[in-house]
Amino acid sequence: MHIYSNPILNQPTFTHHSTINSTDDYEYYTTTMLFRDDLDWDGLMNLMRYKYKNTDKVNMICHACSDGEETYSLALKIKQTFGKDSNKFLPIIAKDIDHDNIIRAKRGNYKVSGTEIERLEQHAGINLNKYFDILDNYMIYDTYAKPKDSLKQDICFKQGDILDDIKNIPKENTVLFCRNFIPYLPPKSQENLITQLGERLAPSSLLVLGEFDMRYDTPKLLSQNGFEQTDIKYVFQKKSNTE
């Protein structure tokens, strides 16, 4: 088993699921939630509407999907925003290096805070019960959100390592979520990832990152590899004159 220490975060990281398949095998910290608020979800939908208005099919890919909460958020937001036209963005292909996370994502049963319920209500409106069952356990004062099968069927969860998968990501018309995990990688892997993404993604694609990703060298690496931020914070695309 090969574990690579990230000296900046002082915790172990890894690069390939063939060596580590479970969070039980190593000390790993992950934070995720429904509709994480470091992304302008409405702004992203408006950008996608404009950018892909004449596109028949858009490839939605979510790497480092963790336990699936963000991917379910994305699926809900797409269906709520685009209605009958949402099919061109679905299904979402969601991958994580950790097999246990994929099991949790497929199961889809999340203990949620009051803030998360508020965000679900904000983004789903009166249609929340179309997408999630909200279950209250009054004995222990916990609330759970469980995505309905109609939402689950719009996501394909599978195990995968983005460092291996880049060559399989469609070059054109792709919206790639890989949020809030880049600083966990060793520095060379960070550089390798962004370099390969710069070589792979065309200007017609979008790269969606997170607040945590903007630490350390990521902004510089993005610029060096031809990416520019769109009008939406943490959402990038290749400059049209550099493919």
Blueprint of the fold:
Layout: E1 4-6, E2 11-13, H1 41-51, E3 59-63, H2 69-82, E4 92-96, H3 99-107, E5 110-112, H4 114-124, H5 128-131, E6 132-137, E7 142-147, H6 149-152, E8 155-159, H7 162-165, E9 174-177, H8 187-200, E10 206-208, H9 218-224, E11 227-229, E12 235-238
Parallel strand pairs: 3-4, 3-9, 4-8, 9-10
Antiparallel strand pairs: 1-2, 5-7, 6-7, 10-12, 11-12
Helix pairs in contact: 1-2, 8-9
What fraction strand?
Answer: 15-25%
Q: Work out the oligomeric state of the chains in this entry.
A: single chain
Overall geometric form: globular
Average pLDDT rating: 87
Computed over alpha carbons, the radius of gyration is 18 Å
Work out the helicity level.
25-40%
Question: How is the largest sheet built, in terms of strand order?
Answer: 8-4-3-9-10-12-11
Amino- and carboxy-terminal Cα gap: 37 Å
* Strand runs, count: 12
Number of helices: 9
The helix/strand class is alpha/beta
Order of helices and strands: EEHEHEHEHHEEHEHEHEHEE
Quick one: biggest sheet? Answer: 7 strands, mixed
Unreliable residue stretches: 1-30
